Amino acid sequence: MATGRFRFERFQLDVSDRQLRRDGAPVELNARYFDALTLLVREQGRLVTKERFHDEVWRGVPVTDEALTQCIRTLRRQLGDDAGRPRFIETAPKHGYRFIAPVEAFDGETVAADAPSPARPWLRFGLPGAAGMAGGGIAGVLVGLFYGFGAAPEPLQAGMGAASVLLVLISISIVLGLVAGGGVAFGIAAGALAPGRVWLWSMVGGAAGGLVIGAFGKLIGLDAFNLLFGQSPGAITGAAEGAATGAALGLGAWLASRWPGRPRLTPGFAAGGLAGAAVGLVIPLFGGRLMGGSLDLLARRFPESRLSLDPIGAVFGETGFGPISQAVTGGIEGLLFGGCVVGAMTLARRLTES
User: How many domains does the chain have?
Assistant: First the structure.
Protein backbone atom coordinates (compact mmCIF):
# COMPACT_ATOMS: atom_id res chain seq x y z
CA MET A 1 0.00 0.00 0.00
CA ALA A 2 1.75 3.16 -1.19
CA THR A 3 0.18 5.70 1.07
CA GLY A 4 1.06 6.32 4.69
CA ARG A 5 -2.28 7.90 5.63
CA PHE A 6 -5.39 5.87 6.36
CA ARG A 7 -8.96 6.43 7.50
CA PHE A 8 -11.30 4.00 9.27
CA GLU A 9 -14.60 5.01 10.85
CA ARG A 10 -13.88 8.15 12.92
CA PHE A 11 -10.11 7.59 13.00
CA GLN A 12 -7.26 8.88 10.87
CA LEU A 13 -3.84 7.20 10.95
CA ASP A 14 -0.91 9.21 9.60
CA VAL A 15 2.09 6.91 9.51
CA SER A 16 4.64 9.49 8.32
CA ASP A 17 3.59 11.97 11.02
CA ARG A 18 3.10 9.11 13.53
CA GLN A 19 -0.29 10.30 14.70
CA LEU A 20 -3.62 8.63 15.32
CA ARG A 21 -6.60 10.99 15.51
CA ARG A 22 -10.24 10.47 16.41
CA ASP A 23 -12.55 13.20 15.11
CA GLY A 24 -9.44 15.33 14.74
CA ALA A 25 -8.33 14.84 18.36
CA PRO A 26 -5.00 13.07 19.00
CA VAL A 27 -5.16 9.57 20.49
CA GLU A 28 -2.22 8.69 22.72
CA LEU A 29 -0.20 5.59 21.78
CA ASN A 30 3.38 4.76 22.58
CA ALA A 31 5.81 3.98 19.75
CA ARG A 32 5.49 0.18 19.87
CA TYR A 33 1.70 0.23 19.98
CA PHE A 34 1.56 2.75 17.12
CA ASP A 35 3.76 0.45 15.02
CA ALA A 36 1.51 -2.51 15.86
CA LEU A 37 -1.60 -0.62 14.77
CA THR A 38 0.13 0.50 11.58
CA LEU A 39 1.04 -3.09 10.77
CA LEU A 40 -2.55 -4.24 11.33
CA VAL A 41 -4.04 -1.44 9.24
CA ARG A 42 -1.61 -1.96 6.35
CA GLU A 43 -2.55 -5.65 6.33
CA GLN A 44 -6.30 -4.94 6.59
CA GLY A 45 -8.31 -8.13 6.26
CA ARG A 46 -5.24 -10.39 6.45
CA LEU A 47 -3.89 -12.32 9.40
CA VAL A 48 -0.86 -10.80 11.13
CA THR A 49 0.95 -13.56 12.99
CA LYS A 50 2.56 -13.23 16.38
CA GLU A 51 5.92 -13.80 14.72
CA ARG A 52 5.41 -10.76 12.46
CA PHE A 53 4.61 -8.58 15.47
CA HIS A 54 7.80 -9.75 17.19
CA ASP A 55 9.89 -9.20 14.05
CA GLU A 56 8.42 -5.90 12.78
CA VAL A 57 7.22 -4.15 15.94
CA TRP A 58 9.68 -5.33 18.61
CA ARG A 59 12.37 -5.93 15.94
CA GLY A 60 13.83 -9.02 17.48
CA VAL A 61 13.80 -7.76 21.09
CA PRO A 62 12.75 -10.78 23.19
CA VAL A 63 9.28 -10.23 24.65
CA THR A 64 6.61 -12.56 25.97
CA ASP A 65 3.23 -13.15 24.40
CA GLU A 66 1.77 -11.17 27.31
CA ALA A 67 3.44 -8.02 25.93
CA LEU A 68 1.62 -8.51 22.63
CA THR A 69 -1.64 -9.24 24.45
CA GLN A 70 -1.27 -6.01 26.45
CA CYS A 71 -0.52 -4.11 23.24
CA ILE A 72 -3.71 -5.37 21.56
CA ARG A 73 -5.72 -4.71 24.71
CA THR A 74 -4.53 -1.10 24.77
CA LEU A 75 -5.24 -0.62 21.07
CA ARG A 76 -8.78 -1.90 21.55
CA ARG A 77 -9.33 0.42 24.49
CA GLN A 78 -8.10 3.47 22.56
CA LEU A 79 -10.23 2.53 19.54
CA GLY A 80 -13.32 1.80 21.64
CA ASP A 81 -13.28 -1.81 20.48
CA ASP A 82 -14.67 -4.89 22.21
CA ALA A 83 -12.83 -8.21 22.09
CA GLY A 84 -16.13 -10.09 22.38
CA ARG A 85 -17.74 -8.19 19.48
CA PRO A 86 -14.81 -6.70 17.57
CA ARG A 87 -15.24 -3.90 15.06
CA PHE A 88 -11.55 -3.29 14.49
CA ILE A 89 -9.22 -6.02 15.76
CA GLU A 90 -10.21 -9.67 15.52
CA THR A 91 -8.31 -12.40 17.35
CA ALA A 92 -7.20 -15.55 15.57
CA PRO A 93 -6.60 -17.75 18.64
CA LYS A 94 -3.01 -19.01 18.99
CA HIS A 95 -2.04 -17.44 15.66
CA GLY A 96 -2.36 -13.66 15.67
CA TYR A 97 -4.73 -10.79 14.88
CA ARG A 98 -6.60 -9.33 11.93
CA PHE A 99 -7.82 -5.76 11.31
CA ILE A 100 -11.39 -6.17 10.08
CA ALA A 101 -12.74 -2.61 9.78
CA PRO A 102 -12.90 -1.13 6.26
CA VAL A 103 -9.90 1.12 5.62
CA GLU A 104 -9.52 3.90 3.10
CA ALA A 105 -6.32 5.54 1.95
CA PHE A 106 -6.16 9.34 2.04
CA ASP A 107 -4.88 9.50 -1.51
CA GLY A 108 -8.06 7.82 -2.78
CA GLU A 109 -6.65 4.28 -3.07
CA THR A 110 -9.43 2.29 -1.45
CA VAL A 111 -8.44 -0.76 0.54
CA ALA A 112 -12.04 -1.96 0.97
CA ALA A 113 -14.67 -1.18 -1.60
CA ASP A 114 -17.31 -0.59 1.00
CA ALA A 115 -15.20 1.61 3.27
CA PRO A 116 -17.46 4.29 4.70
CA SER A 117 -16.46 7.93 4.62
CA PRO A 118 -16.39 9.65 7.99
CA ALA A 119 -19.58 11.50 8.78
CA ARG A 120 -19.52 15.14 7.73
CA PRO A 121 -19.19 17.62 10.62
CA TRP A 122 -22.69 18.99 10.05
CA LEU A 123 -24.11 15.46 10.34
CA ARG A 124 -22.13 14.73 13.51
CA PHE A 125 -23.50 17.99 14.89
CA GLY A 126 -27.07 17.98 13.59
CA LEU A 127 -28.09 14.36 14.11
CA PRO A 128 -27.02 14.02 17.79
CA GLY A 129 -28.44 17.48 18.53
CA ALA A 130 -31.83 16.61 17.02
CA ALA A 131 -31.81 13.23 18.76
CA GLY A 132 -31.02 14.85 22.11
CA MET A 133 -33.88 17.28 21.57
CA ALA A 134 -36.24 14.35 20.94
CA GLY A 135 -34.86 12.61 24.03
CA GLY A 136 -35.64 15.73 26.06
CA GLY A 137 -39.22 15.56 24.81
CA ILE A 138 -39.50 11.93 25.90
CA ALA A 139 -38.12 12.84 29.31
CA GLY A 140 -40.74 15.61 29.43
CA VAL A 141 -43.53 13.07 29.04
CA LEU A 142 -42.13 10.96 31.89
CA VAL A 143 -41.56 13.92 34.20
CA GLY A 144 -45.05 15.28 33.43
CA LEU A 145 -46.60 11.92 34.30
CA PHE A 146 -44.56 11.78 37.51
CA TYR A 147 -45.76 15.15 38.76
CA GLY A 148 -49.24 14.71 37.31
CA PHE A 149 -49.88 11.56 39.31
CA GLY A 150 -47.75 12.35 42.33
CA ALA A 151 -48.26 16.04 42.94
CA ALA A 152 -52.00 16.51 42.63
CA PRO A 153 -53.91 13.50 43.99
CA GLU A 154 -57.08 15.41 44.84
CA PRO A 155 -57.72 16.69 41.32
CA LEU A 156 -56.91 13.24 39.96
CA GLN A 157 -59.95 11.93 41.83
CA ALA A 158 -62.16 14.56 40.25
CA GLY A 159 -62.63 13.15 36.77
CA MET A 160 -62.21 15.71 33.98
CA GLY A 161 -60.43 18.14 36.28
CA ALA A 162 -57.83 15.47 36.94
CA ALA A 163 -57.30 14.87 33.24
CA SER A 164 -56.86 18.60 32.65
CA VAL A 165 -54.18 18.89 35.32
CA LEU A 166 -52.36 15.86 33.95
CA LEU A 167 -52.49 17.05 30.34
CA VAL A 168 -51.32 20.55 31.24
CA LEU A 169 -48.34 19.24 33.23
CA ILE A 170 -47.37 16.81 30.47
CA SER A 171 -47.67 19.52 27.82
CA ILE A 172 -45.54 21.95 29.80
CA SER A 173 -42.95 19.24 30.51
CA ILE A 174 -42.73 18.24 26.86
CA VAL A 175 -42.14 21.80 25.71
CA LEU A 176 -39.53 22.39 28.42
CA GLY A 177 -37.89 19.04 27.68
CA LEU A 178 -37.67 19.72 23.95
CA VAL A 179 -36.22 23.19 24.41
CA ALA A 180 -33.79 22.23 27.17
CA GLY A 181 -32.81 18.98 25.47
CA GLY A 182 -32.15 20.77 22.19
CA GLY A 183 -30.04 23.48 23.80
CA VAL A 184 -27.90 21.06 25.78
CA ALA A 185 -27.60 18.43 23.03
CA PHE A 186 -26.60 20.86 20.29
CA GLY A 187 -24.09 22.41 22.69
CA ILE A 188 -22.57 19.01 23.48
CA ALA A 189 -22.50 18.07 19.79
CA ALA A 190 -20.72 21.31 18.95
CA GLY A 191 -18.18 20.77 21.72
CA ALA A 192 -17.49 17.21 20.57
CA LEU A 193 -16.29 18.56 17.20
CA ALA A 194 -13.48 20.55 18.83
CA PRO A 195 -9.97 19.08 18.49
CA GLY A 196 -8.38 17.78 21.68
CA ARG A 197 -9.83 17.34 25.18
CA VAL A 198 -13.22 16.24 23.92
CA TRP A 199 -14.46 15.69 27.49
CA LEU A 200 -13.77 19.33 28.36
CA TRP A 201 -15.35 20.80 25.25
CA SER A 202 -18.39 18.54 25.60
CA MET A 203 -18.92 19.92 29.10
CA VAL A 204 -18.32 23.50 27.97
CA GLY A 205 -20.70 23.10 25.02
CA GLY A 206 -23.40 21.51 27.18
CA ALA A 207 -23.01 24.20 29.84
CA ALA A 208 -23.22 26.99 27.25
CA GLY A 209 -26.34 25.50 25.66
CA GLY A 210 -28.00 24.97 29.04
CA LEU A 211 -27.08 28.46 30.23
CA VAL A 212 -28.54 30.21 27.16
CA ILE A 213 -31.77 28.17 27.18
CA GLY A 214 -32.16 28.51 30.96
CA ALA A 215 -31.62 32.27 30.95
CA PHE A 216 -33.90 32.84 27.97
CA GLY A 217 -36.61 30.54 29.33
CA LYS A 218 -36.60 32.22 32.72
CA LEU A 219 -36.78 35.68 31.18
CA ILE A 220 -39.70 34.75 28.95
CA GLY A 221 -41.47 32.89 31.76
CA LEU A 222 -41.24 35.74 34.25
CA ASP A 223 -42.35 38.29 31.65
CA ALA A 224 -45.30 36.10 30.71
CA PHE A 225 -46.49 35.80 34.31
CA ASN A 226 -46.09 39.52 34.92
CA LEU A 227 -48.07 40.26 31.79
CA LEU A 228 -50.89 37.79 32.46
CA PHE A 229 -51.19 37.89 36.24
CA GLY A 230 -49.37 41.04 37.34
CA GLN A 231 -46.89 39.03 39.38
CA SER A 232 -44.16 36.44 38.82
CA PRO A 233 -43.36 33.27 40.76
CA GLY A 234 -39.82 34.38 41.56
CA ALA A 235 -36.71 32.17 41.45
CA ILE A 236 -37.77 29.52 38.94
CA THR A 237 -35.27 27.43 37.01
CA GLY A 238 -32.80 29.60 35.10
CA ALA A 239 -29.30 30.02 33.72
CA ALA A 240 -27.33 28.54 36.64
CA GLU A 241 -29.38 25.34 36.74
CA GLY A 242 -29.21 25.03 32.96
CA ALA A 243 -25.44 25.45 32.87
CA ALA A 244 -24.84 22.92 35.64
CA THR A 245 -27.13 20.36 34.03
CA GLY A 246 -25.59 20.90 30.60
CA ALA A 247 -22.05 20.45 31.92
CA ALA A 248 -23.01 17.24 33.71
CA LEU A 249 -24.67 15.82 30.60
CA GLY A 250 -21.65 16.81 28.52
CA LEU A 251 -19.49 14.69 30.81
CA GLY A 252 -22.04 11.87 30.64
CA ALA A 253 -22.06 11.99 26.82
CA TRP A 254 -18.27 11.80 26.74
CA LEU A 255 -18.25 8.83 29.13
CA ALA A 256 -20.82 7.08 26.94
CA SER A 257 -18.61 7.64 23.88
CA ARG A 258 -15.72 5.90 25.68
CA TRP A 259 -17.73 2.71 26.24
CA PRO A 260 -16.08 -0.25 24.44
CA GLY A 261 -17.73 -1.41 21.24
CA ARG A 262 -20.29 0.35 19.10
CA PRO A 263 -22.40 3.11 20.71
CA ARG A 264 -25.39 1.54 22.48
CA LEU A 265 -28.47 2.87 24.24
CA THR A 266 -27.89 1.23 27.64
CA PRO A 267 -24.44 2.73 28.35
CA GLY A 268 -25.64 6.08 27.01
CA PHE A 269 -28.72 6.12 29.23
CA ALA A 270 -26.69 4.95 32.23
CA ALA A 271 -23.93 7.55 31.82
CA GLY A 272 -26.33 10.41 31.11
CA GLY A 273 -28.78 9.30 33.80
CA LEU A 274 -26.14 9.07 36.51
CA ALA A 275 -24.65 12.44 35.60
CA GLY A 276 -28.11 14.03 35.46
CA ALA A 277 -29.20 12.46 38.73
CA ALA A 278 -26.06 13.69 40.51
CA VAL A 279 -26.50 17.29 39.40
CA GLY A 280 -30.25 17.10 40.02
CA LEU A 281 -29.60 16.14 43.63
CA VAL A 282 -26.98 18.85 44.14
CA ILE A 283 -28.80 21.82 42.58
CA PRO A 284 -31.53 22.09 45.30
CA LEU A 285 -28.88 21.78 48.02
CA PHE A 286 -27.31 25.01 46.73
CA GLY A 287 -30.60 26.88 46.53
CA GLY A 288 -31.43 26.14 42.89
CA ARG A 289 -34.70 24.82 41.57
CA LEU A 290 -35.60 22.36 38.87
CA MET A 291 -39.12 21.71 37.60
CA GLY A 292 -40.46 20.41 40.91
CA GLY A 293 -39.21 23.42 42.85
CA SER A 294 -40.53 25.78 40.16
CA LEU A 295 -43.98 24.14 40.25
CA ASP A 296 -44.01 24.46 44.02
CA LEU A 297 -43.27 28.20 43.73
CA LEU A 298 -46.14 28.57 41.26
CA ALA A 299 -48.54 26.64 43.48
CA ARG A 300 -47.71 28.83 46.48
CA ARG A 301 -47.83 32.10 44.57
CA PHE A 302 -51.21 31.15 43.09
CA PRO A 303 -52.97 29.26 45.93
CA GLU A 304 -56.25 29.07 44.02
CA SER A 305 -54.64 26.72 41.51
CA ARG A 306 -55.33 22.98 41.60
CA LEU A 307 -51.66 22.10 41.83
CA SER A 308 -50.02 21.13 45.11
CA LEU A 309 -46.74 19.33 45.66
CA ASP A 310 -47.31 18.92 49.40
CA PRO A 311 -48.36 15.24 49.00
CA ILE A 312 -44.88 14.47 47.63
CA GLY A 313 -43.35 16.17 50.65
CA ALA A 314 -45.53 14.07 52.93
CA VAL A 315 -43.98 10.92 51.45
CA PHE A 316 -40.62 12.09 52.82
CA GLY A 317 -42.05 13.17 56.18
CA GLU A 318 -41.99 16.87 55.36
CA THR A 319 -44.63 19.52 55.80
CA GLY A 320 -44.85 20.91 52.32
CA PHE A 321 -42.40 20.43 49.48
CA GLY A 322 -39.23 20.76 51.54
CA PRO A 323 -35.51 20.41 50.81
CA ILE A 324 -35.49 16.61 50.93
CA SER A 325 -38.40 16.42 48.49
CA GLN A 326 -36.74 18.93 46.17
CA ALA A 327 -33.43 17.01 46.22
CA VAL A 328 -35.02 13.61 45.57
CA THR A 329 -37.36 14.83 42.83
CA GLY A 330 -34.47 16.81 41.34
CA GLY A 331 -32.48 13.59 41.16
CA ILE A 332 -35.38 11.83 39.46
CA GLU A 333 -35.76 14.68 36.96
CA GLY A 334 -32.03 14.63 36.25
CA LEU A 335 -32.00 10.85 35.84
CA LEU A 336 -34.84 10.90 33.30
CA PHE A 337 -33.65 13.98 31.43
CA GLY A 338 -29.98 13.01 31.33
CA GLY A 339 -30.67 9.39 30.46
CA CYS A 340 -33.07 10.20 27.63
CA VAL A 341 -30.96 13.01 26.13
CA VAL A 342 -27.60 11.22 26.25
CA GLY A 343 -29.15 7.87 25.34
CA ALA A 344 -30.75 9.38 22.23
CA MET A 345 -27.50 11.14 21.31
CA THR A 346 -25.61 7.85 21.66
CA LEU A 347 -27.97 6.13 19.23
CA ALA A 348 -27.58 9.01 16.79
CA ARG A 349 -23.80 8.76 17.08
CA ARG A 350 -24.09 5.10 16.14
CA LEU A 351 -25.87 6.11 12.96
CA THR A 352 -23.12 8.58 12.04
CA GLU A 353 -20.55 5.79 12.42
CA SER A 354 -22.46 3.18 10.41
Answer: 2
Clarify whether residues 217 and 274 are in a common domain. yes
User: CA 131, CA 186: separation in Å to the nearest integer?
Assistant: 9
For residue 173, is it within any domain? yes
Residues 42 and 184 in one domain: no
Evaluate if residue 111 carries a pLDDT over 50: no
Answer yes or no: do 90 and 137 share one domain: no
Average model confidence (pLDDT) across the chain: 82
Give the pLDDT confidence score for residue 351 in this predicted structure: 75
Q: Is residue 115 part of a domain?
A: no
Which residue segment(s) compose the domain that 66 sits in?
5-105
CB 88 within 8 A of CB 76: yes
Strand-pairing partners, residue 25, are 22
Query: What pLDDT, on the 0 to 100 scale, is given for residue 112?
Result: 42
CATH of the domain at 26: 1.10.10.10
Please check whether residues 313 and 219 belong to one and the same domain.
yes
Are 153 and 274 in the same domain? yes
- Cα 248 to the center of its chain, rounded Å: 9
User: What is the reported pTM?
Assistant: 0.67
DSSP 236-281: -S-HHHHHHHHHHHHHHHHHHHTSSSS--HHHHHHHHHHHHHHHHH
Ranges of H-type helices in the chain: 31-42, 50-56, 65-79, 121-150, 153-156, 160-192, 198-229, 239-257, 265-285, 291-301, 310-315, 323-353
* Helical packing angle, 239-257 and 198-229, nearest 10°: 150
Q: What is the per-residue pLDDT across 114-153, written as a single tens digit (0 to 9) for each?
A: 444 445 667 778 899 999 999 999 999 999 888 887 765 4
pLDDT digits (tens, 9 = 90+) for 176-229: 899 999 999 999 999 887 766 777 889 999 999 999 888 776 666 555 556 555
